[in-house]
Amino acid sequence: MRIIAADDEKLALQNLTKAIAEAEPEAELVTFSEPEEVLDYAKDHPLDVAFLDVEMGTMTGIEVAKQLKIRYPKINIVFVTGYDKYMAQAIELRMSGYVSKPVTKEKIRIELEDLKYPVTRVQENILEARCFGNFEVFVNGRALEFERAKTKEMLAYLIDRRGSVVTSGELRSVLWEDALSDDNTRSYLSKLKKDLISTLKHAGVRETLRESRGKYSVDIERISCDYYDYLDDKPEGVRAYNGEYMAQYSWGEIRNVLLYDRQLKHNQ
User: Fold this and answer.
1) Which strands, in side-by-side order, build the sheet including 76-81?
2) pLDDT in tens, 197-254
């Protein structure tokens, strides 16, 4: 379980850290005293639970929580405070819990045992894809870094196709939309393929990609994905859908319309 704790008061942060460590000793726990540090860390590290002090100087815990939920829709937000004036805003954020100060390990344990989004153990060397909101991909908790932005988009599209074979021509038409399929795009796609293979190999998940003679697909058995969980009607996948799907890619809009319609039917 990946947990962060944030409080701008030194003693309060020490107490919170001690309580979390005692309640969940095997968790990965990282602490922060500044809200900006939380958001910087979250850029490259997927999170399961965030214990946030509501009042943190330059930015409130409410504001931090909003930013975290944009990046990680399934993150469990637990507010820690001695006041209740922010309760209404916290409820609007669909928080997981609310801990009153002084914090104790018993209070923390109660929240961790009743998380809004239960945390499942992610197997090592499994590609973890977050498709709701912006597309992000991780291995063992670390975000993959590609040499080219289009490489990440190529992987995103293959994950979107959920194991179906995609030809080089289809990839070129998606990645460059109306551009002519010429030697330039073919050469560029070849570079993307090399970058993707190199990145996956370095991360220990090379087998995730299947490619042969200009045809590509992903091995869905080697991928943990909120989109796949949603299609399989898993509760965690259904809860994770936030109305956005691979928001940084224009082609994701079509898929999102279908997902949104599906969600409406489920809610009827």
Assistant:
1) 28-32, 2-6, 49-53, 76-81, 97-100
2) 999 999 999 999 999 989 999 999 999 999 999 999 888 888 889 899 999 999 999 9
Q: Which amino acid is at 204?
A: G
Q: Which helix (H) or strand (E) holds 66?
A: helix 61-71
- Structure confidence by residue, pLDDT tens digits, 149-172: 999 999 999 999 999 999 999 999
The Cα angle at residue 73 between residues 28 and 40, in degrees rounded to 5: 55
Distance (Å, whole) CA 124 – CA 205:
10
CA distances from 87 to 94, 121, 185, 194 (A): 11, 30, 53, 50
CA distances from 137 to 78, 169, 245 (A): 25, 24, 14
- Provide the token pair at 250: 């224009």
Crossing angle, helix 149-160 and helix 252-267, to 10 degrees? Answer: 40
The contacts of residue 71 (CB under 8 Å, 6+ apart) are 42, 43, 133, 134, 136
The answer to whether the CB of 30 falls within 8 A of the CB of 59 is: no
Residue 250: other Cβ atoms inside 10 A: 10
CA torsion sign for 223, 202, 50, 249 is: negative
Q: Rounded distance, CA 87 to CA 24, Å?
A: 26
